[in-house]
Design brief:
Length: 309
């Protein structure tokens, strides 16, 4: 069975174009023939609302067993009965837009609370890192897709930690400003320490490594919402120096050069936000998607006309 590549997309600083970027990257991957699943881990549900709008639906239209909340809610309920096994139907959870993007929505209107509420019910122990991993394992969902992208909120709870450990790679979108880039380095250190704590040094590190696999690799950082005419080279150099000091390795690096940032810059264009809100593709993300695919050893996508050009 072919195993999908799982990518965790996040940043502790909000307002960096994370949800816009993950949706656009998915659209361009699908256009190139990839099977893509988006999983919305953000309690704000912005990605879910964009995807549902393509189906003429909203969050209130979802039944309880049609959102990611159900996976965590059932985990909390069923773990009280150790001998009870419940199989969650992935077909009920997964929806598909008219553009071919598959997604599992989260729902702030879920009867037993949003993902932030459900996260508070999970204990800070190894067992409660497993709801998503166990769902993936039992449903064999990875065999259905080439890429699975997690839209992660700017928080560090058991839900986001479990998704990070389950991932093969992670991507960080950021605005290149002093406060934002400091957040990037902090984010990298945090996610790196999660794996070290849970899979290398913890009491259950052997079984954790067996279930979650190798440490997720940093694909790279990409700049978003850049304003035309702004020179941020100094801040960019500071970010590169700080990432080098952190000793983290990026998939963009070569044997002779440490590289952390993708070449493509996403500018602060009004049409990007407008088209994304309507669920439409933006040509600005074609080259970034190409870079990401090539970074993972895949073939680049062909160029084509996109609405908004």
């Amino acid at each position: 069975m072919t195993r999908s590549k799982k990518i965790f997309v996040g940043n502790y600083k909000g307002g960096v174009g994370k949800t816009t970027s993950i949706y656009q990257i998915a659209l361009h991957m699908v256009e190139s023939g990839k099977r893509v699943l988006l999983i919305d881990l953000d309690p704000q549900c912005s990605l879910s609302e964009i995807c549902l709008s393509r189906l003429k639906m909203n969050l209130q239209d979802l039944q309880p067993n049609e959102s990611l909340n159900y996976v965590y809610d059932m985990w909390y309920e069923v773990k009280q009965f150790p001998n009870l096994h419940v199989q969650i139907d992935k077909k009920t959870l997964i929806k598909q837009t008219d553009d071919g993007v598959h997604f599992i929505p989260s729902n702030m209107f879920y009867p037993n609370g949003g993902l932030d509420d459900l996260a508070t019910k999970l204990r800070d122990d190894f067992y409660d890192l497993l709801p998503l991993q166990q769902f993936f394992q039992s449903s064999q969902i990875e065999g259905d897709f080439d890429y699975i992208l997690f839209d992660c909120p700017p928080s560090n709870n058991m839900i986001t930690q479990g998704a990070f450990l389950l991932s093969d790679y992670y991507l960080i979108p950021t605005i290149i400003q002093t406060m934002s880039v400091r957040g990037v380095v902090h984010y990298v250190r945090t996610v790196e320490s999660i794996y070290a704590t849970k899979c290398e040094q913890g009491n259950h590190s052997t079984v954790a490594k067996l279930l979650f696999g190798a440490k997720p690799e940093l694909l790279g950082v990409f700049e978003t919402l850049k304003k035309r005419g702004v020179n941020n080279d100094t801040v960019m150099n500071e970010l590169h120096a700080d990432l080098e000091k952190s000793k983290v390795k990026s998939k963009l690096s070569t044997a002779t050069e440490e590289k952390f940032l993708f070449d493509t810059i996403i500018y602060n264009y009004e049409n990007i936000a407008r088209l994304t809100a309507d669920g439409l593709k933006c040509s600005e993300y074609v080259e970034l998607t190409n870079e990401i695919l090539v970074c993972m050893g895949d073939k680049p996508i062909r160029k084509y006309a996109v609405l908004g050009d």
